[in-house]
């Protein structure tokens, strides 16, 4: 198997256009806030204020890990350095950055500090000041634009994936300002749910780089390697080609039974001949994520049992994508994936009985306990999955969904069906008299050490359907010597 020689990475957006992405995001936020305030009969005044991320040391040491900007701040300003504040005037639309003021000693350790005009030009904002001037500048900004009493819209709200809360900005002298803690978070989060064309170009580039890196791992994998070497192969290819230094999340390089561990990340196992490999890795480009999973046999040839499970997951993956369009409920796509996997397993006499009865008993969650997918953007798990009024389901499998929204044009969402043989879940099913009756336990024993298969692509919802942004080999390829792992096209 080899990749078509004509395939190549798409060109990255020019460096100078990066700031335009975040300027466009600010414009979207201002428009959304103005519409909200007008509908509520409130004056179109006030200033959005966000605090960027700070460098953190590792526990009690002085080691400082590579800094990554707080995601909401990155979305609006694209600033790569720590210690900044950012403001956007709702009335005028003007944006201001506040940079930390460095001491002369900082130049010794960190090089010559960049001057304020550099940040103004680099991030395409209207003005830049130092952080210690923040209160004075904001008071002047309010006074110059006739805002009356200064009003600051601060970011405070819960991330429905982590349960954590964003921290509102604070600064010395803030008690002289009126603050609003409830308006900004849901509006800014909703802005992040749908992607602009410029954002989509960044996500596409991250997908192009990651797809090529996955193919490189497929080419290099062989029995006797370590899972960590597979991760290193991916990271090396992504960082050397088009500048994806970071991954969007902890790489999962799982082989054999490790592939059924949903949050596996140790990557310290040894690749054994004939095992399945599950590679869940995605590169990040200019803050924007990709999240791709490929599954295939480590020796390049599917056994019959491996082919059965892989085909079941691939059918679910492809059928979901074929049904995706605006207005479709994501929970229905999850159930469709479950149904296709159950149908495939029934065809092989791994499970028995009526598929409808299995769905009613939530049998699909035994094999696919994770949610089908999640919103993707500046974060691998982008926020906005459960806006106010949308409740998370409580049933097995469904409660793992990171969103149950209707699909909207402009969303980017991952499609990741899977079929895992997890001892803990199989044990629970066997102990349930009703669920147990659906299983051919003799066949199940043949798959207990199998591990799992997941296939994940990143999909953009268009006006009439969707577009798969991921370009990894998926289809199995017959060869004269048996089953070649995947067809490179």
UniProtKB/TrEMBL annotation:
Q: Residues in domain Aminopeptidase P N-terminal?
A: 17-163
| InterPro entries xref list | Aminopep_P_N, Creatin/AminoP/Spt16_N, Creatinase/aminopeptidase-like, Pept_M24, X-Pro_dipept-like
Keywords carried by this UniProt record: Hydrolase, Manganese, Metal-binding
Identify a single GO molecular function assigned to this protein: manganese ion binding
Q: According to its UniProt record, which cofactors does this protein need?
A: Mn(2+)
Query: Which branch of life, at top level?
Result: Eukaryota
The record's section on Gene3D superfamilies has: Creatinase/methionine aminopeptidase superfamily (3.90.230.10), Creatinase/prolidase N-terminal domain (3.40.350.10)
Note the CDD domains from the entry.
Prolidase
Name of protein? Aminopeptidase P N-terminal domain-containing protein
